[in-house]
Amino acid sequence: MNSDPVDIAELLDSDALYHLATAAEWEAYRSTGVIDPPSLTTEGFVHCSWGRQVAATVGRHFAGVTDLRALRLDPEALGETALVEEDSYGSGQAFPHAYGAVPVSAVLQSVSIA
Asked: Hey, what domains does the chain have and what are their CATH numbers?
C-alpha cells in the first residue's frame, strides 16, 4: 500500500472552481440535489477555492480529514447563484464564494484528495 501523501496540485486543474466536502457530505448533497453546507446559513455563502488554492485550504481547514473530496464545479451551471471572488477575512487572497445553494448538477467531477 502506498502511504505517500497525495499531491493535490497534480490532481486538480489550477484554474477550475472547487468546493471541498467529505465523502459523507457529498453523499448527502447528492441525495438532496444541492450543495448547501452550514456556511450558507451562518455566513451567507458556500466556500469555494480555485484549484491553485485547494492545497492551502486543505492544510488550513481540513487537517487530518481522510475522506475529503474536491468537487469540481461548472461556474456556468450555478443558475441564479452568484459567484463572487472576495477576501472576506483579510487574508490577502481572494476566494470564490457562491451566494446561494449550488445545484449538484453543477458538479463536473468528484476527486478524492485525502
From this structure: 8-112 (3.20.170.20)
